[in-house]
Specification:
N-acetyltransferase domain-containing protein; Aminopeptidase; 29% strand; alpha+beta; 30% helix; Acyl_CoA_acyltransferase; 242 residues; 9-stranded mixed beta sheet
Amino acid sequence: MEIVTHTDRPELHEAAAVVFHERWPEFIFHDDVPKRYMGRVKEHFARYDVMVLDEGSVVAGGWGVPMAWDGTVDNLPSGYDDALVRAVDGREAGVEPTTLSIMAVAVSSSHDKRGMAGVVLEELARRAHRDGLAHVVAPLRPTWKHRYPMVSMTEYAGWTRRDGLSIDPWIRTHQRMGARVLRPAPRSMVIEGTVAEWESWADMMFPVTREYVVPGALNLVLIDRERDRGVYVEENLWVQHS
């Protein structure tokens, strides 16, 4: 196994994108905030954009952004989008970062259940500590939350197995590495589009105005046919690594 950054191996960008796209529903890629900020994220924070190679092929990857956080729950960003904004705007304003927010990790389906996600998380955490950042946090998108879209993240995060760990595989991965749950990220991502766009992204019909259960969505999606708008506000879960 070899760990490289996108700067080290830019020719692997497309292969890495395939790994990420196979793990998330299509609508996730239509959040307007990343569209505005990702170019500067890649420019400013290339050190925290890593890939794991197996015999030269991309099998896992992940990335994060350094941001200012005072260590209190009340000072956490509202979620994924807000963390992006805080990191980029802080960097450009000369604000000293204290924390790495791990934004996403993906593992190719060919390498499931081989500990690759842990390899990525550990590498990102190592880089953060090496750079003198005091904290490592992540706005998690729990793997099984989409099965319970009408359950709040607070309630879902409290569901445990007999061993005391979360019922959710992604939360458990972080718990086994020493992470603790801080609080829900209530407005982590906001995705808006026309009804036609949402029907395309979700591959389903929305014949009337109402909230819908959409495959892959952690919460309900509000469709307003009269206004020709669909709005999805995703709730994630903040955790902190020791």
